[in-house]
Amino acid sequence: MDHVAVLALFDRDMREGAQPDGPGAHVDRDGRVVRQVAADQGWNGLVWSDLDESNADRAIADQIAYYTGLGRGFEWKLYGHDLPVDLGRRLRSAGFVPEPEETLMIAEVADLSLDVAPPEGIRFLPVTDEAGVHLVADVHEKAFGTDSSRLRHQLLARLRDDPETVVAVVALAGDEPVSAARMELVPGTRFAGLWGGGTVEGWRGRGIYRALVAHRARAAVDRGYRYLQVDALPTSRPILERLGFEPLTTTQPYVYEPRG
């Protein structure tokens, strides 16, 4: 893989040319930044910027004013190759709080090892309705220890209004949901994104996550996508590398919450 070329394509198609990530959201291009604005249950934030030392602080202040004027917190999704090189420091100085850094990993689907079956005793259930959405959200709450109300709302809305843009699956051990994941498809691009792969404690280390990646990759092939993209935590990066994913850069959320 030509890392420089693929990262440039990712920046162009998935960031500068970003599309709304669900019903009720819209994307604005405001000068040198691209941002998404969504309802309370949606994701609000910056996905792309083209800044330098002369205009970065003003752009940051403008976005704070814009989102706080809407009464919303928001996220600035910072990538390791974004400029200026001290953009993270500038965001912290403006009141943003950094969250854990992840690795942007991309694979060409044709190069992946897809002959991976679920472990013995595990079956995969496609998510197509509200009951399935609740299973996904329940697994994520157990796996990550976080509230999944936003996920419930967004996934249900996508399945209802835009079902061709999402693939979700739950792994069951008998009737017990033990892992879940989804894939978001971006029409008109060559990228599909893998999100939310989480396995509840006690079922980790058995190959379920690896099988879920392969399952979604096969679905991407069937739909004609060339690349798969993942924002990988340190725990999942080794698994993804063994499957054929390559690290291209880092990504880190910087979160701003209105004061008062």
Describe the structure.
This is GCN5 family acetyltransferase. This protein is α+β, with helices and mostly antiparallel strands. It has 2 domains: 3-103 and 251-256, Aminopeptidase (3-Layer(aba) Sandwich), CATH 3.40.630; 108-249, Gcn5-related N-acetyltransferase (GNAT) (Aminopeptidase). The chain contains 7 helices and 12 strands. Strands 1, 2, 3, 4, 5, 6, 7, 8, 9, 10, 11 and 12 form a 12-stranded mixed beta sheet that branches. Helix 2 (56-69) links the parallel strand 3 (45-49) and strand 4 (74-79). The longest helix has 15 residues, at 130-144. The relative contact order is 0.19. The model has no long low-confidence stretch (mean pLDDT 94).
Which key features would you list for this structure?
single chain, 260 residues, alpha+beta, Aminopeptidase, 2 domains, twelve-stranded mixed β-sheet
CATH architecture of the largest domain: 3-Layer(aba) Sandwich
Q: Write down how many β-strands occur, each being a DSSP E stretch of 2 or more residues.
A: 12
The chain-level mean pLDDT equals 94
- Taking pLDDT < 50 over at least 5 consecutive residues as the criterion, the unreliable ranges are none
Strand content: 25-35%
CATH fold name of the largest domain, please?
Aminopeptidase
How many separate structural domains?
Answer: 2
Helical segment count:
7
Let me know the CATH homologous superfamily of the largest domain: Gcn5-related N-acetyltransferase (GNAT)
Radius of gyration: 18 Å
CATH class of the largest domain: Alpha Beta
How does the helix and strand content classify structurally?
alpha+beta
- Structural shape: globular
